[in-house]
Amino acid sequence: MRVFDWIVQLMGIALALAAAPVFLGWVNQCRAWLQNKSAPSILQPYRGIRKLVHKDAVIAQNASRLFRLAPYVVFGAMVTAAAVIPSIATRLPITRAADAIGLVGLLATARVFLSLAAMDIGTAFGTLGARREMMVGFLAEPALLVVIFVVSLTSATTALPIIAERLAGQSLVLNPSLAFTAVAFTMVLLAENARIPVDNPATHLELTMIHEALLLEYSARHLALMEWAAALKLFNYACIGFAVFIPWGIATSDAPLGLTLSVMLLGVKLTVAGAGLAFIETVSAKLRVFRAPEFLATAFLLAVLGLLVRLLLGE
Amino acid sequence: MSMFGSSVWSATIPDYEGRCLVSFSSTSPLTLCLLLLLAWCMVGFAGMVRPFSLAFVGRTLFPLGALVGAALAVVAATSLTQAPEQLVLPIGLPDLPVHLHLDALSGVFLVLLGAAAAGISIFAAGYFRQGEGTAPGLLCLQYHLFLASMGFVLLADDAYAFMLAWETMALSSYFLVTTQHRIPEIRKAGFLYLLMAHLGAISILLSFGILQGGSWHFTFDAMRAAHLDTNWATVAFCLALMGFGAKAGLVPVHVWLPEAHPAAPSPVSALMSGVMLETALYGMIRVSFDLLGQPLWWWGLLPLSLGLFSALYGVVFAAAQTDMKRLLAYSSIENVGIMFTGLGLAIVFAGVGMRAAAALTLIAVMYHALNHAFMKSLLFLGTGAVLHATGERNLGRLGGLIHRMPWVAWLTLIGVLAIAGLPPLNGFVSEWLLLQSFLFSYKVPHAFINMLLPLGAALVALAAALAGYVMVKFFGVIFLGQPREPTLQKAHDAGFAERLGLAWLALGCVLLGFFPTTVITLFGTVTKQLGLGELPLSNAPWWLLLPIPERESSYAPLVFFAVILVVVALATVSVRFFYHQRLRTGAAWDCGFGGLTSRMQDTAEGFGQPIRHLFQPLFFIVRELPSPFDTKPRYRLEIGDRIWRALYEPLGPLVRRVADKVAWLQQGRIATYLLYSFVTLVVSLALML
C-alpha cells in the first residue's frame, strides 16, 4: 500500500506539472472571450515553453551563479509545494513534510530567490521589480498566514490535508469567518500571482511591471523554467483555496474510484475558478503601484477580521 | 591507560564549620565549565605578555579561545542530560562565598555561548589587524574577559556573583565597543551604552533586593524559598524586565543598541548581538520561571506587548537603514522582540496553568535565541569581512561583491535565508514553533485576552515577512548588482581563518534547521526542570517534528530539503539531457535601453522607500528638497527615531536643571562641608541607637 501511496503522490506531482500551464491557458482564454478578443489556444503556455526551450540562452556578462541557480530553486520550490498541497488525495507521503505554515515559507523562499536573482544584474528594472515583489510579499504573506490561522482554529490543525479532511466532514453551513477569509485569500491570490488589480500579466510597459520586471534578464531555458514555475504557483494557490474552502471531493483514501472522482472534480473546480479569475481580472482596473499596499493591507485586515469573528463566535 | 585513569580527580575543601563547601570532580560538567571559563581568562591575560604582537595574539590566542569555546559547548551539551549541580567557592568577601550552579537552562545558554564564541573567535583570529585603536593584546584581554563574564552570568547562583559577572560583562564590552576610541562618535556611542547598561544594572539589583523577600540572603536558593506577596512580586518582575530589557534592547530602552553595536569591531558586534542579548533573555527566564516561582498570567502581557512592538519597530527601522551594521543592529531589536513576545506568551500560559503550551512556547523562545546567536553572528562577521575588503559600511557604496568575495557572499546568503525565516534553515523552525504555540492562545480562560492574543500571531507573521524584505535588501545591495564604486573592483575575499569562522556558523544554521527534533528533546530538560513538563515527541520518527501530536501539524526539514534537491537535480539533469545547452553571455539586455551604469540600480534608500512610506508615523523624517533655482541641487533625507526625541532628548535639560539645584549644596567653604559631616554623623548615630 505504501508503494501505491508513492505512485499516487508522483501522479499528483505529474498532474500538477502538466495541468498548471493548461490552467493558465484556460484563464487567458476566458479573459480573451470576456474582453471580446479572439482567444489563444488553451495550450498556448505550452507552446511558449517549447519555443523558449529551443532558443539559445543569453545571460548578462556580470551575472553570478545565483542568477543561473535561481530558476531551478524557484521551480523546485513550486514543485515541492505541489507535492505538499493535497490536490487530489489527502493521505500522501510527502504531505507530512510541511504544514500550511511550511508551505507559506516555501512560497517565500521562491519569492526571495526570484527577487535576489532580479537584483543580480544590477539593472534599474530588475531592482525595481525586486523591491515591488518584496513589497507585495511582505503584506501578502502574513495575510495568507492569518487565513491559515482562521482555518486551523476551526479544524484544530495546521496540516493542510487534515484541514481539508476535517472541513469536508463538517456540515455545509455558511461560516462568517470563512467568508471573510475567502475574500482575503482571493485578494492574496491575485496579488501573489501578479494578476490584475496589483500587476498586469500582459503588460508591456516596464514601469508598471512587477513580476515581469523580475524576469526581464532571463531567456530561453531559464525563462521557460520561470514561466512554468509561475503557472505552477497559480495552480498551487488555486489548490490551496480548494483544500481550505471547498474541500469536498478530495480523496481521503487511495481507492482508485475515489481518486478518479477526485481528479475529475479538481478539473471542474479549476474550470470554474479559472473563469472566475478571468472575470475578476476583466471587471477590475489595475491599481497604481503605490495603491497595492492598501489593497494588500485590506486583505490582511479582512483576514484578521475573520480571525476575530471566529474567536467571537467560539466553537 | 593509567595516565588517563589518573586524569579523573576530585578534591574537597571543608570550611570552618566542617560543611563541604567545595567539591571538585573533573568529571562534573560544572567544574569543567568553570575551568574552561578560567581558561578563557588565562588566554586573555596571556595577551598582555606580548601586547603588540599581532602574530602571537591572532595566530595563537584567538584560535585557543575558539577551542575553549567549542569545548565549553560540548561540556554544556553533555550536562543537559544530567541532574543540576551546585558549587560553593570560598572566594570573595568573608562569609559571602560565590555560589555557582549548572542546570539545563544555564546549560542551553552555555552551549549557545560556547558554540557561537568558537566561530567568532576563529574569525577574529584573522580579523584584527594593526590600526584598530586598542593594542591587540589588550583587545584579546577584553575580548576573553567578556566571554568569561558571560559564562559566569550563566553559572551564577547568587545575586553578588551574578551582578559581579554582569558588570564585568558590561565594562569589558564597553571597552571593546570603544576600540577605536579616537573617533568621537564611537566614544559617544560607548558612553550611551555604558549609561544604559548601568541603568539596567541598577534595575536588576533592585529586583534582586525585592526577590530576597526579607531573608537578607542573596543566594538564588533563598530567593526561590522566599514567599513574596503579589504586589512585591509584580514590582520585582517589572524591575527585572526593565533591567534585562535594557540589556536586550527592548523598545523603548533600545536606543543604545543601534549606536553601540555598529561602533564595535565586527567580531565584537557579533558577540554582543549574538550572545550578550541572549544572556539578558536568560536572566529574564531565570527570574520569571525560576526565582519568582509561579508567575502570574497577566505579567506576561507586558513582555508580550513590548516584544511585539519591538519586533515591528526594529524591522521597520532596519528596512530604512543605509549603514549595513546599523541595519543588522535594528534587526537584532526585531529578534529580541520576537523572543520577548514568546517569553510573555509562555508566562501567560504558565500563569493560567496551560503547562504544555507554556513548555512549547519556552522551547520556541530558546530555539530562537540559539538560532539568533548563529544567524546574527554570521551576518555581522560577513559585514566585517566586507568592511575589511572595501573599507565601506555605507550600503550606497557597495554592490556586486559576490564576484569578488564568493566565499563571504555564499556563506552570508545562508545566514540571510535563515534570518528571513525560510525553510529548511533554522530561523523557520523557531518561527514555526512560536506560531504553533500562538494557536493555543485562544484557550486562555480570560475573556477578551483570548481574542487579542491570537492577533499577536498576525503581528509576528508580519514582522517575519518584513524581515525577509530587509534581508533581500541587505544581501542584494551589498553582494548583487554592479559595484557602485570603482574601488570595489579591488576587493578581496576573506582569509582562511575568517572563512572557517563563517563556515562554522553557517553550518550551525543548517544543522539547527535540519535536526529540530534533537534540539527540542534537549530543550525538554529545561522545561522539565522549570516545572512545565516535557513535550510528547516520542511516537514520531526522529526526522519528523510533531510537537503537538493531537494537532497533527508536522514539519520534516530533511524530507522537505530532499524533495527540493531531487526536483532541482532532475530539472538540471533533464536540461542537460534534452536541451542543446547553448549559452552565450552578452551585455545586460535592460529592455534595450543601453548605457547601463551602476547608478541606475536601486540604492539602499530606494529599496527601503516603500516601507518608509507605509510606516511614516514611526519615523522622524527631515527632508531637504532642492528648489528649481539651485545651481548645485542637493537632496538630503534624515531619518530619526521618534522615541529618542520624545523620551530621551528632554532628559538632558531635565538632569541639568536638577543638577543646578543640587549644586547649591556645594558652597565651597570647609566649614559648610564639616557641618554636613557632623549632621550626617548625628543622624546616623540617632538611627543606630
Structure write-up:
The complex is a heterodimer of chains A (315) and B (689). Chain A is mostly helical. Chain A has one domain. Helix content of chain A is 71%, strand content 1%. Chain A has helices spanning 2-34, 44-54, 65-84, 100-120, 124-155, 160-169, 176-192, 211-214, 220-245, 256-283, 292-313; one strand spanning 57-60. The longest helix of chain A has 33 residues, at 2-34. With 689 residues, chain B is mainly α. Among the domains of chain B are: 9-215 and 267-278, no CATH class; 659-688. Chain B contains 25 helices and 7 strands. A two-stranded antiparallel ribbon of chain B has the order 1-2. Chain B has a two-stranded antiparallel sheet with strand order 3-4. In chain B, β3 and β4 form a beta hairpin. Chain B is globular. At the A-B interface, β1, α3, α4, α5 and α11 of A face α17, α18, α21, β5 and α22 of B. β1 (57-60) of chain A pairs parallel with β5 (583-586) of chain B.
Short description:
With 315 residues, chain A is mainly alpha-helical.
Jot down its keywords.
heterodimer, A: 315 residues, mainly alpha, 71% helix, 1% strand, B: 689 residues, two-stranded antiparallel sheet, two-stranded antiparallel ribbon, 25 helices, 65% helix, globular, disordered N terminus
